Amino acid sequence: QKEVEQDPGPLSVPEGAIVSLNCTYSNSAFQYFMWYRQYSRKGPELLMYTYSSGNKEDGRFTAQVDKSSKYISLFIRDSQPSDSATYLCAMGYNFNKFYFGSGTKLNVKP
Amino acid sequence: EPEVTQTPSHQVTQMGQEVILRCVPISNHLYFYWYRQILGQKVEFLVSFYNNEISEKSEIFDDQFSVERPDGSNFTLKIRSTKLEDSAMYFCASSDYYGRNQPQHFGDGTRLSIL
Predict the structure, then answer these.
(1) Are B112 and B86 a contacting pair, CB within 8 Å?
(2) Could you say which DSSP state residue A10 is in?
(3) Which of A8, B8, B49, B86 is deepest in the core (most CB within 10 A)?
């Protein structure tokens, strides 16, 4: 059983577009949800962190968690070429161990 | 901004040899982790470490693997007898006080190539 599913993309959008990235999961015990951005040859960089359900906004980024549907989303408004990277969702039921999605590769075209 | 630092950035080792990957976590962090990412695959949890002992480990983390915090700043992952399938990026991460449930911050990884 795959714990976390994420569409690998690639997703290509024009500059200024709204981007929607999504993950689904199977373990209803997950409470902690993160989005990381990973540039080539770099480690994952934390973007957003959400506990339980609800929305969280930080600048151009909005994270949503729907625990009833086991579905999380990351929205990027006014996307920029510098947003081009692989976006990883990660989640867990405690802070000892996280489960990662496979990552969605995003390309924002100037 | 404080960073997790990993050395070396690339390690090439003959199969069967021992390898030690090194990490310097963020200085006030108390929780330490190792993950690996085989090329083209997901980031996979290996082990978490707190208060000088392993908190949790995955099925990947068998007897060939060990972790250590030899001093107040370093956190190491040792693979005793490397196999070809150990070739991967290895990421160290650290997080702040557990009770506040702070997420993990990652280093840029060590690329391990087993020949």
Answers:
(1) yes
(2) -
(3) B49
